[in-house]
Amino acid sequence: MKLKRKFIHSSLLMMIAGISLLLAVVGSTLVLISNTRDSFDVLVNERAVRSAAADLFSLIQDAESGQRGYMLTSDAKFLTPYKEATKDVAEAVDNLVSLTKARPKYKALVDPIPSQINAKLNEMATTLTLAADGKTAEAMAIVRDGHGQNLMNTLRRQLQAIIDLSDANIHDSIKRQVAGSDQMKWIMIGAAVAIIAILIISILIIRQYIHSINDAHEEVQKFNTALEMRVEERTQDLVRANQEVQRFAYIVTHDLRAPLVNIMGFTTELENSLTMMQNYVLADGAPLSPDDIARAREAAAEDVPEALRFIRSSTSKMDGLINAILKISRDGRRQLKPEMVDIRAIAENSVNSLKHLIDAADGEVQISPSPLHAVNDRLSLEQIFTNLVDNAIKYRSPQRPLKISVTTKRVGGFIEATVEDNGRGISEADHERVFELFRRAGQQNQTGDGIGLAHVRSLARNLGGDISVRSELGKGSAFTLTVPADLSVVLRRVGV
Prior knowledge:
Blueprint: H1 2-73, H2 79-100, H3 104-110, H4 113-132, H5 136-144, H6 147-209, H7 217-255, H8 257-281, H9 290-333, E1 338-342, H10 343-353, H11 355-360, E2 364-367, E3 373-377, H12 378-394, E4 403-411, E5 414-421, H13 452-462, E6 466-472, E7 476-484, H14 487-493
Parallel strand pairs: 2-4
Antiparallel strand pairs: 1-3, 4-5, 5-7, 6-7
Helix pairs in contact: 1-2, 1-4, 1-6, 1-7, 1-9, 4-5, 4-6, 6-7, 8-9, 9-13, 10-12, 12-13
């Protein structure tokens, strides 16, 4: 009896150690995820500050270009960019002030900007009024005085300082995210080592007391096996979560950096164009070569507009990427609502919502004839089927009429639904890549931002299931969705 009590006591200690370890790992993971989310929020805000500063300076540059162009040529067409720019300056200033008002580090840099902007706008308005009244010489005298140029240089330094500070903060935020990923990795390694140690100790205890507890050996062995399975499942879940966090951090630092690099590159192009235009505008009567004049005109007519277009395109791309990330994040936080649904009917409704596209492609759709009921989240399933059918339509093969089939069946405690098409297919190397955020495979001849299948996988895993693909390039694809037949049981199991 004493040995039995000692065995029970030792077993309880091992259980407590294992549970404490799991709680510590889960707690550490939650803290790291929270820190990553905070770092991402800072990253988004800093990018907004940087963009606001760059946009404001771009507007002032546009206004100044219009001013100088009109004063040099008296051509009213130069007033158009001036008016368009000055119209938006106040809003841009307010946006910059609003974004930085709760940021003490920006205060000294941002506070002087509204008065400096007003001084620059007044200087430009005065010269344009004089030029419009035929007093070009007086207007040019104000320009040559250098006050406007000094204001512009001051604004450039102020806004560049804001951009530099924002870049530094962005860099720090990214470093924190990378550090969080490294910490997560070491937590997983430490947890695995500790779990192995606990298992080894448990086995030694069992072997030590096996002769005194023969009657309970089978029960203890079953309990130990079940515990190992649960620990392994939790470890696999944590490893997968860590991998997803690492992939997400890579995507954020890679895909969001690309538009930023474009913006920085074309900002340099703008600076080069400005130099050529300054050589022309600020010649102060000095003779200019035909090449100087041609380069200045080309910069004003082609280089500057082109750079601005690319910068706007890059900021729009960055906004789209951020919105896509937020969309998937919102889906992960949405409360699931299990209800009795007919899987076949949901698939049919998704097909009907896209019927105009199917008809336009002369397509044909076949759906399993029998109803298949399950307790699951209707909205998530509707989004999944709509995405899969829409992908089949979008990536159809031009060599043959579109054919789509939707089959559903019950496998144990799960529902399997397969959406198969005869489209252009996916190469084997890209079977897993297509489910990654912002990743697309094959010929890029369709619009999209690469979140469709990533969104589908996120929805499927939120439901306690998953999705896989079977495809051959040039022959079509089959996406198989697996979800629990009763979502309410899964939610109760995890305490939701």
